[in-house]
Amino acid sequence: MSTDVIVVGAGWAGLAAAVDLARSGLGVRVLESSSIPGGRARSFMDRVTGETLDNGQHLMLGCYRETLDLVRTLGTHHLLTASREPIPLFLDGGERASIRSVKLPGPLHMLPSLADMRHLSVRDRLRMGRAAAVVALAGLGDARRLDSMSASDWLEGPAGQSARAMKMFWDPLVTAMLNEEPRRASATMLVVVLREGLLAGHEPSRPLLPTVGLGDLVARPAVRAIQDHGGDVLMRTRVRGIRTRGGQATAVCTSRGDMEADAFVLAVPSWRIAGILDGAGVSHAVLEADRLEPSPIVTVFLRYRRPILDEPVAGLLGGRFHWLFDRNDIEPGPPRGTWSYSAVASAATGLVDDTSRDIADAAAGEIATRIPAARRSLVVGARVVKDRRATFRPAPGTAALRPGPDASGLGNLFLAGDWTDTGLPATLEGAVISGRRCADLVRGRPSVRDRPSKCKTARIPHHPG
Ligand SMILES: Cc1cc2nc3c(=O)[nH]c(=O)nc-3n(C[C@H](O)[C@H](O)[C@H](O)COP(=O)(O)OP(=O)(O)OC[C@H]3O[C@@H](n4cnc5c(N)ncnc54)[C@H](O)[C@@H]3O)c2cc1C
User: Fold this and answer.
1) Whole-number Å distance between alpha carbons of 342 and 300
2) C-beta separation of 220 from 17 below 8 A
3) Residue owning the nearest CA to atom 2 of ligand 1
4) Are strands 263-266 and 413-415 parallel, antiparallel or unpaired?
């Protein structure tokens, strides 16, 4: 195979770029340092139970337009289901609210949710409705000014949200969506995810859940697609640097020796970029990405003796864990006679250094105080997955640290990854957009994905039941 393009990194950004390039007839080689493709969205087998676990539970939304297009291309579209509604929100002490949307244009589709938030006063709910209308119907305004403001400054200031609405709705919602607490997250990022996702309409706002591990949804089918189109994927191959001549990259230096190509896509995490590009004469703006700080996510996979949840996903309010997912429909399922769930704690800085035992106890405890059925069931197994660098912190001012795909200053080396300037927080959708945008640049085509566009309706089968 002659190598037209080398893609470094087999996360969703690199795989999206490589699939796109291989399908357009270019000779593609993917270099990945680890032994499993998929990056932060990879699957692995739990040796004790035989269950397929993901590097943290992931949730997609109907507005993940490019991701849905990628899974359609890979033929795994049928392995995603739209979550059944209403999505319950469990409060400490057994109180319950819900998120429920109807087929109305956004943001009117969310009116039933406001009606269901009985843990908040009518006045609080009216203010939430007003804030939602402003976000959904007005433009971003002065985006730069908004990016210098924290999400909580914006919510408590111009958006007029009360202390109780912050504690019992916005804090958990923003933390779960941005992987950062509202007081430390950029207001721009919050407004973007509300506009593009939650408030964009019924279908765009629907949570989508894989019925298989993320490895079977994207990583392995993508590797197969690249190989079927004549490309190759070299695992356990670490890129250490690049060679350049006359303002162009000529080769990557790897643990297997130097490899040449006509074009390069660097799809590694932000904290690896400087190590690879330092000394290559690239623009300083790219090396600034090193200043993006990481934010951890902790996922606890719990097995119970009896079922504890009737819905595929539920929100947990007022504690350290934010979501609870039913994993019993994910193939291959949990061992016979047990019921499998995962609890997710975003922005888990205060949790990630605890022992796995303490974290699992904390998750089981928070679930038990909120969900009555969990009090009647026994936890028979737990596995804790910590990712200390799950995403970058979308802090105020971080937009300036996120380079564009062609910011390297080398004419044939492009940057992909959830941390590049997609306009979105670190998400699967941002990763896929960034990879496909690089594929467009390699082919010399005008990129249609420079900005996330308004969501289109996703046709996804609904969760059974
Ligand atoms: C626990 C957790 C939960 C999450 N939940 C969600 C969610 O619910 N919804 C959502 O949309 N997003 C979620 N995310 C974020 C999402 O997983 C990431 O945004 C996305 O996977 C990033 O993809 P990427 O390709 O940009 O980077 P990565 O996945 O980090 O891929 C980079 C790849 O480059 C490889 N690499 C690094 N250095 C080198 C080198 N020198 N040479 C060769 N290869 C190298 C790495 O091994 C890796 O495979 C979550 C993330 C985590 C960790």
Assistant:
1) 5
2) no
3) 56
4) parallel
Cα 427 to ligand 1 centre (Å): 9
CATH number assigned to the domain comprising residue 106: 1.10.405
**Test site for ligand 1: of 6, 20, 34, 58, most ligand atoms within 8 A of the Cβ:** 58
In a domain, 224, yes or no: no
Task: State the pTM of this model.
Answer: 0.94
Q: Is 22 helix (H, G, I), strand (E, B) or coil?
A: helix
pLDDT for res 282? 86
Phi/psi-derived region of residue 411, left when phi > 0, alpha when psi is between -120 and 50, beta in every other case: alpha
DSSP at 219: I
Angle separating helix axes 12-23 and 428-442, nearest 10 degrees: 40
pLDDT higher than 80, residue 463: no
pLDDT for the residue numbered 449: 46
Cα separation values, 14 from 20, 98, 268, Å: 10, 37, 8
Residue 117 lies in a domain: yes
418 lines ligand 1 (CB under 6 A): yes
According to the model, what pLDDT value does residue 83 have? 87
Q: What is the pLDDT of residue 79?
A: 96
pLDDT in tens, 339-394: 999 999 999 999 999 999 999 999 999 999 999 999 999 999 999 999 999 999 99
Residue 123 lies in a domain: yes
For residue 417, report the distance from its CA to the centre of ligand 1, in Å.
Answer: 8
Integer Cα distance of 51 and 213 in angstroms: 9
Domain assignment of residue 126, given as a range: 100-198
Of 64, 18, 23, 60, the closest CA to residue 37 belongs to 18
Number of domains, the chain: 1
Check residue 335 and give its pLDDT.
80
What are 215-252's pLDDT values in tens digits?
Answer: 999 999 999 999 999 999 999 999 999 999 999 999 99
Is the CB of residue 223 below 6 angstroms from any atom belonging to ligand 1? no
Q: How far is ligand 1, taken at its centre, from the CA of residue 20, in Å?
A: 18
Distance from the alpha carbon of residue 92 to the mean position of ligand 1, in angstroms? 33
**Which amino acid residue places its CA nearest to atom 37 of ligand 1?**
268
Does residue 171 carry a pLDDT above 60? yes
Q: Which pLDDT value is given to residue 426? A: 97
387 Cβ closer than 6 Å to some ligand 1 atom: yes
Q: Which atom of ligand 1 is nearest to the CA of 419?
A: 26
Q: Which atom of ligand 1 is nearest to the CA of 431?
A: 26
Q: Average pLDDT, whole number, for the chain?
A: 91
> Is residue 459 a part of any domain in this protein?
no
